[in-house]
Design goal:
Blueprint (H helix, E strand, L loop, with lengths): L6 H9 L16 E4 L4 H17 L5 E5 L8 E7 L11 H9 L2 H15 L8 E6 L5 H14 L3 E7 L2 H12 L8 H18 L9 E5 L4 H10 L7 E5 L13 H8 L14 E4 L6 E6 L5 E4 L1 H19 L6 E6 L4 H10 L4 E4 L3 H8 L4 E5 L5 E5 L1 H13 L2 H16 L7 H15 L3 H5 L7 E6 L8 E3 L4 E4 L3 H9 L6 E6 L6 E6 L3 H18 L12
Parallel strand pairs: 2-4, 4-5, 6-7, 6-8, 11-12, 11-13
Antiparallel strand pairs: 1-3, 2-3, 8-9, 9-10, 13-14, 15-19, 16-17, 18-19
The structure holds 1,6-di-O-phosphono-alpha-D-glucopyranose (G16).
The site of 1,6-di-O-phosphono-alpha-D-glucopyranose has 18 residues, from loops.
Amino acid sequence: MPPSSLRVVYAFAREMHPKTSDVFIQYGTAGFRTKANLLEHVVYRMGLLAVIRSRVKNGRTIGMMITASHNLEPDNGVKLVDPDGEMLEQSWEEIATRLANVSDNDLESTTEQVIKQVNADMSLKASVFIGMDTRYTSPRLAAAAANGVIALKGTPKEFGIVTTPMLHFCVKCRNDNTYGTPTEEGYYEKIVGAFKNIRDKLPVYGDYNTTLYVDGANGVGGKKLNIIRKSLDGELDLNLYNLGGNGGKLNLNCGADFVKVSQTPPVGVEHAPFQRVASLDGDGDRIVYYYLDDKEKMHLLDGDRIATLLASYVTELLRASEASGLRLGLVQTAYANGASTRYITEELKVPVSCVKTGVKHLHHAALAYDVGVYFEANGHGTVVYSKAAKNAISKIAQEGEPEQRKAAQLLQNFIDMTNETVGDAISDLFLVETVLRARGHGVRQWMEAYTDLPCRQLKVTVQDRNAISTTDAERRCTAPEGLQSKIDELVAAYTSGRAFVRPSGTEDVVRVYSEADTQEAADKLAAEVAQAVFDLAGGVGERPALPA
Ligand code: G16
């Protein structure tokens, strides 16, 4: 593409997607995310970048997902997906941020600089898959994305409303046809098909029952489960709530993030004692479980619980199939409950690594293992399998002794049911249901594995959240001065106390996390740390109060 044809980049920008705000925007934990009305020019420009990225990857398909995931309805965002279905390579985040912030007048020259910098061959074909969530601002932003792709003569393909993980899956399949068919139907065929196959091998027994309640967060995940439900032939009876009708608002007082952070059940869901409920987030990439007991007390089964459940089951199957020499490991973040980490290392005897928040960090760390299980406590995670692991399992499934073969075949179904590209609420739901069914377990047995340390999360609004810098996988902060020593001093007063703070990469807040031996203590510690953040990092509005 000769540089003169880059003029169209400016023409599209000026006529259709002008930059109307000077607010600096940064590629964060999961792409760009802010108020929807500040995003149109950003998404258009990411369309340009997706084409450049596709050409750098020799014409392989890149994904663009229009979503603000767990954020409330007025926000929106865009996540870029690399050819293997993983998040955009981190070294490109700075380029994305630069392109998003230049003026319209500088857009043409900056685009040209980027093309040179990354050495893109603009004569190659380029392909970009575009998906969106259910927000009313998403269609407009998806159109801006497509215009960005067209401006650089790439080929956009629009998937309409899909979950984020479905788009990741389709991108992967488009670039590697051994993984599946790059359509929503192809996704159902592979993931739901594997679930149905494994079900035939696992009779229902013990405390497991096939009824599952689901909180759809009034987003896309619930809608897709409603499609899937009809094909499950009673193997799993899904009672779906918060599907977006009856005035229910996206992620408002419902959904995985609300349930995890507030530790309270969502609105809009009926409850029965000990009935397991799965709560999804707005774009279907996170899931947590919970139940109410006979005194209506809530018990949360979060990402840590899902990770330990899956890791222990895969370990069992690997052992039974006698697949030797495969390393299984688990990846967590600082938010992982201390009790879960202890359980994984001491009881399951599985190695654990701790990385920074963001699935992009967890995913890469998990690839170091033959079987890498990664989960954030907020319910975002999956399992990844190396080629060597898949080959070894497949060989045993064909050639092993009968018992080994049986375990290896179950593992193969388990792998097919897993969306290895990214955390996926729907795929994770089927994985969890499979393990519970295989073990004849209800929620109480699942909960018995270990006892969580009481914890609390809070948000503090400050003038500039980037005033907080962190190190050691975000477990300690290096700025502003004095904050870490104050946190150390506060934590020291609590039994089993732990706390950290970090700037959110998806909301304009500083997040505070605390753990201690009682809920009262964890609540008080979180509030004290929040006050310290407010005082030392430029708090805005009302100073956080200590619990009464
Ligand atoms: C995104 C990321 C997650 C992260 C979450 C919160 O989730 O994909 O890895 O845990 O944001 O990030 P932060 O604490 O930086 O705001 P989602 O589901 O919103 O896309």
